[in-house]
Amino acid sequence: MASRRAFDIRHQTGFPVVALTCFFLLYLPIAALVVYAFNAGASVAVWQGFSLRWFVTAWNNEQVLDAAWRSFRIAVCAAFIATAAATMAALATTRTRPYRGLNAKYAFINMPLMVPEIVVSVALLIFFSRIKLATGYTGLGYLVAAHAAFCIPFAYLPIRARLEMTDLSLETAAADLYATKWQAFRWVTLPLLWPGILAGLMLAFVISLDDVVITEFVKSAGQETLPTYMLGQLRRAVTPEMNAISTVFLLISVGIVTLFFIVSRKRT
Amino acid sequence: MTHHSQDQFAIEVCNVGMVFGSGAHAFKALDDVDVAIRENEFFTLLGPSGCGKTTLLRLIAGFSYPTEGEIRLHGRDIAALPPHKRPVNTVFQNYALFPHMTVSENIAFGLVMLGRPRAEIRDSVDRMLKLVQLEALKDRRTGQLSGGQQQRVALARALAPQPKVLLLDEPLSALDFKLRKEMQIELKRLQHETGITFIFVTHDQEEALTMADRIAVMSSGHILQIGSPRDIYDRPAERFVADFIGETNFMTADVLSCADGTAQVALPGGARFAARVPDGVRPSGQVSIVVRPEHAELVDPGAGAHLTGRLAHVVYFGTDTHYHVLLDTGQRFILRRQNSRNAGAEPPEGAVVGIRIDNGAAQMLKD
């Protein structure tokens, strides 16, 4: 097995050093953030003993709870809208013979991944302010719409990957066995697609939850989400309360992404 | 014994044409195809890949629609009906079993979609499980089954709704040799027990000969010949049919006279012989005739020999032996002899030998 070893990247000289350095640099700041969330003192740099006081403080902070609840509502709505749209887009782009312009369509659906966020933010700010003026509506709808739009490609990718794995002849077989188009979708395509849809939903939820740039531009007065609230606080005094909120945030995100992994690997 | 009258057809394909693409990229997959399949028949579409046999099957199933012509089921034109409205079911080449369902759920699918009462579905599924001998595996997921078991689930699933016609798209091609032989017998049994018309697509000529009541040989979008396995094998009308099915010796011969579907011809080397003439052909001049390798025997050169030559190779095949003879005219002729314990001594390679063709074994081709 000498030849196989020669091609294994792990046996390249210096590989362990480079890899460990990268991981260290990536995770050291996050580790420090998490550690200082448990600081007894008011500093984010000087360790003064273990305490859960900042978690309690954050939990009792009305503004934090308000922002977190708003973030949650926006993320849920945006994730559902984005996943529904992404499912339809994935069906439309895979359940067809390849045709000229199909690649352009992929690019179009994935545009939010490529267009700089700040450009979208400015565009939406101007666009929505016109609508706000004209209609007088200043609710959460704008944020939901904006989040749903940039979440579509994130929901689209796992759904399309899943669809490309499922055998087209299964739908033909369903039609052959007296299933109408809708029945074939309901009883064959959808159950097989389900893990992809769930994965897309969770990914879209996480992406919406931590967005700052677009939210900062689009939100109306008093519409702080958790990330924009934290950004605002950091401009004033920095206390381990931010670390505590970040730590909880991290746990939720990691939890959902882990779930995403488990679901998308299921039954493949 | 009741006998179905010849004109009671399950499927009639009338002047069907199928063109894929358009303009300069147009490809004619089927050209003026005409075939009538009788009720309770085991009908085989045989041809090399790309000959249009699967296209024709998909048209009958309703997965695509013909660009020309009619497809009739018991006299009713169904060419424009979607697949879920046709009482025709398919066994797919890759089986296409639903991976998220159990064996029972797969078999029940068609009946559930038809909205049959629950008790009836349960009874049908039980009957099907018994028919294909899979009762013990009914609650398994299909991914946990072997190829042969998946094959039988696919059959049961297609038979459960009791279709008028069952379409089989090379269903045995993914199985190994022994299992394929078993399934061939199994399929014949199922067809016999269910009394359903089977249309079977294959590129395997041996499979076609052993299983079919009638065979349609296809090539480049045309049906070249339709007939019983014996007709197709013994009396091929076209060069392609003779060449595609089994081994054949082709010879050119001169027509001397012709009467009652039999022509007297002069074989290369001058010997006279009678050859069958295909329907609708009036032979004259030089023609092609074919003789199957097992329809001739090696004899001493001289008396009774139609052809003479030198024995070039002897190839032993276990059940039989092939003799390659280089004729005096320069052509090759292959003979096949069944091996048996009391077969006579065989001539050595290089010996001068004579060939006697069995009476009635020579067939003239259309071209």
Task: Please summarize the sheet with the most strands of chain B.
Answer: 6 strands, mixed
Low-pLDDT regions of chain A: none
Averaged pLDDT of chain B:
88
Structural class of chain A: mainly alpha
Helical residue percent of chain B? 10-25%
Question: Largest beta sheet of chain B: what is the strand line-up?
Answer: 6-7-8-3-9-10
Q: Radius of gyration of chain B, Cα only, in angstroms?
A: 25 Å
Q: How many DSSP H or I helices of chain B?
A: 8
- Estimate the strand proportion of chain B: 25-35%
Order of helices and strands of chain A: HHHHHHHHHHHHH
Count of separate DSSP helical elements of chain A: 13
| Biggest beta sheet summary of chain A | none
How far apart are the first and last residues' alpha carbons of chain A, in Å?
A: 30 Å
Number of separate strands of chain A: 0
In short:
The complex is a heterodimer of chains A (268) and B (367). Chain A is mainly alpha-helical and 268 residues long. Chain A folds into 2 domains: 12-51, no CATH class; 58-264, MetI-like (MetI-like fold, Orthogonal Bundle), CATH 1.10.3720.10.
What this model shows, in words?
The complex is a heterodimer of chains A (268) and B (367). Chain A is 76% helix and 0% strand. Chain A is mainly alpha-helical and 268 residues long. The model of chain A has no long low-confidence stretch (mean pLDDT 88). Chain A folds into two domains: 40 residues, no CATH class; 207 residues, MetI-like (MetI-like fold, Orthogonal Bundle). By secondary structure, chain B is of the alpha+beta class. Helix content of chain B is 23%, strand content 35%. A six-stranded mixed beta sheet of chain B has the order 6-7-8-3-9-10, with helices on both faces. In chain B, helix 2 packs across helix 3, helix 2 packs parallel to helix 4 and helix 3 packs across helix 4. The longest helix of chain B has 18 residues. The N terminus of chain B is likely disordered. Chains A and B meet through helix 9 and helix 10 of A and strand 6 and helix 2 of B.
